[in-house]
Amino acid sequence: MADDEQQQQSPAQSSIDDNEDVDMGMESEPEQQMRGATTTRQPPPPPLEIPSVTPPSWEERCTAPPPPSIIRPLIPPREGMEYWWARDRTLTEWHSEIDEFEAAEPPPIGGDIILPGAASLHPAGYATSVRALLWDLQHQRWLARKFLRCIQQRIWSRRVQCDVDLIENTPVPDRDAVLLTDTRNRAIYRFHRRDIFNNLLSNITASDEFLPTPRTPTNPWTNQPLTLAQTIALCQRLTADYAARGACPPVLFAAFCASGYNTRRYESENPSLLSQHAIQSYFRDIHDDNRETFCETLFQMLADAGVNYSMTAIRRWSRQSPLTPAHREWLAMARDYTLWVNLHLQPRRSWHDESAIYCEVRQLYERTPMRESDTAGPRLRALRTPAMPGMPPVLMRAPAVMGEPVVIPFRPPAASALSLLFPALPMIDISGGNGAMSSDEAIALIHQALFRM
Is the pTM of this model over 0.70? Predict the structure, then answer.
């Protein structure tokens, strides 16, 4: 009986076992992996330790100077405004956050009455209080900076730089002293007002030939560009000095101050004045840099005036030194003529048309010794000068190869030095009456005498 019961239960049990096998076979792969993981248990990972990021407090930040352009409160936090001491801000960040608080405030309907139901996290007038706090902080920072500058000024005043006149090399008197503070070099410079004014004008009126090229004012001692604050202080000091003496400053200096001490704006607003000053400075003297331009201007004026001139004679006359009053007159003439042609100005009252200009050019040429006969050397002048009746011939020193005085008879005015090259002319006696020089020797002698002037 027991065997029959076991046999009867065996099909059911077998079916259960088969179902279990099927279920085991139908398990997904992740489930099998989880089943295997449960068999080999691993210890759980340790918990993550997140460091607490706490910004430095206001007391900790005050131990170091703030970065540039950062506004940091200099007083302990106020009650109800601790938010503004939590971190440092720039001026732009201060204003932007204050504007946000103002936009979030409920609008008043009249007086101090606030609209009912308006949501606001801060009391009325909070943004106004914060803005007043910002102005108070700015005032404190300004007072601190002023105190620091006073201490620095006192220290730097003990070792003043350049306390000497740059021209006469003498100590600068107190009535003419101009102090210039240089925070970059941590020094105070003491200049004579004449030196600092001449240096300022030389920079703002600089030019390259006829083209104005103004530069930023510089320190005469270090030759470093001045800052805007230094330029403003210096110009105001010079203007006050002119006012104390009852005099008017130069036009270009006044134009530079009127342009806001900006070199580019000053150049763009005053091109005619700067060009006129550049031309006047160019023809102030005759030197190697402008001699060729000066001669070319003279050639142009003389050619337009119909004057028969010699380029060689004019170039030789321009190289004479020292300068004579005639040179000064021609410099002024060339300067005014350039202003007339380039800038269309009337520098002289009598220059109402071109005929008046060329008339003055011819008159000045007539009374100026710049002809070829006037600018020639002594030997060439002796060769070109006719002999006077009853005067003995002139003795000239021959070249070093000859070593003996040469008797050169003068020719009539119609004959030039080239007429000596013709064989029909008399021979030149160089032997004291004992012999005559051949034609080849005479030509060589005259050639050396002409081209060694």
Answer: no
